[in-house]
Amino acid sequence: MTPPPGLTSRRPQVPPDRLLAGLVPPRHFHEASFESYRPDREHPSQERALTRMRGVAEELAAPRRRGWFARRAPAPPAVYLDGGFGVGKTHLLAALARAVGPDAAAYGTFVEYTHLVGALGFAPTVRALSQRRLVCIDEFELDDPGDTVLMSRLLRELGDHGVALAATSNTLPESLGEGRFAAEDFLREIQALAARFEVLRIDGPDYRHRGAPHPESGLPDTLVADTARSLPGATCDAFGDLLHHLRTVHPSRYGALLDGVTLAALTGTAPVGDQADALRLVVLVDRLYDRDVPVLLGGSGTAGLFDETMLRGGYRKKYLRALSRLGALAEQGRAVAVPGPADRT
């Protein structure tokens, strides 16, 4: 029987204009708006954040000043949404990008912007993004000193070009980098980043009530492969082969790697022993989640996928986010492979 195609057979070539065109809110938040955000009355900070984000959108609706007038204009707004999981930070960020418009706003995760610089080069990235009124950065994080210097310089140059900034994170800007590297050695860069932003703290419980991610057990590998074989657009890969393949593909192309994929099946899923492999897997999971691609896991599923050392380290939030998202996608995949009683009738 012919095996289903795998992601390992794909080597996407992504032209620069497509990378830039892809800087839009993910499918999950494509319809997000200020009107659809429902602030919790018990947490007034949510209403305050909504009001401020509306204000930013109104500021950016005014004609952009050029030349001598631009030098006399006030600094463009730069807002930073800080809060826990599930309080609506990404919803508000996507709503802001939508209100400003796709031609005037760029929207991407922190990692996507660093990858964009890696793919295009620093100066071309600045030239391209400086044509926008707004740059939105979801999941702001600093993983290493190089990223700290890179983002500090990028945001400084965009601000100098009159570009407004909006970011979300689970960490206050002055605390970025803690636990990941010797942050005190780069305190000046971190403080410069923090000084650029007006911090909007958003309180409240996780409206999705996800809690800590729980391990998802894997299905039999034969069932995983057979299910993928029966579904148009599904892919199937051995987990170890996929990790090896990801080393050969620039992370900026992981989205293109998933073009047309309706379900991603993985056999032999097992704990990831190398942190570089683990971080690449996190990026792939983010792109799967952005595109609502169900995942079918064989092997050990998500159990022990990232070991305790990883989960206690500086990238802890990344790994927990990946486990939460992968668990949700695996539930969708399991529903396809093992349909409930109503689906069998």
Automatic annotation (TrEMBL):
<dbReference type="InterPro" id="IPR027417">
    <property type="entry name" value="P-loop_NTPase"/>
</dbReference>
<dbReference type="GO" id="GO:0005737">
    <property type="term" value="C:cytoplasm"/>
</dbReference>
<dbReference type="Pfam" id="PF03969">
    <property type="entry name" value="AFG1_ATPase"/>
</dbReference>
<feature type="region of interest" description="Disordered">
    <location>
        <begin position="1"/>
        <end position="21"/>
    </location>
</feature>
<dbReference type="GO" id="GO:0005524">
    <property type="term" value="F:ATP binding"/>
</dbReference>
<keyword id="KW-0067">ATP-binding</keyword>
<dbReference type="InterPro" id="IPR005654">
    <property type="entry name" value="ATPase_AFG1-like"/>
</dbReference>
<protein>
    <submittedName>
        <fullName>ATPase</fullName>
    </submittedName>
</protein>
<dbReference type="GO" id="GO:0016887">
    <property type="term" value="F:ATP hydrolysis activity"/>
</dbReference>
<keyword id="KW-0547">Nucleotide-binding</keyword>
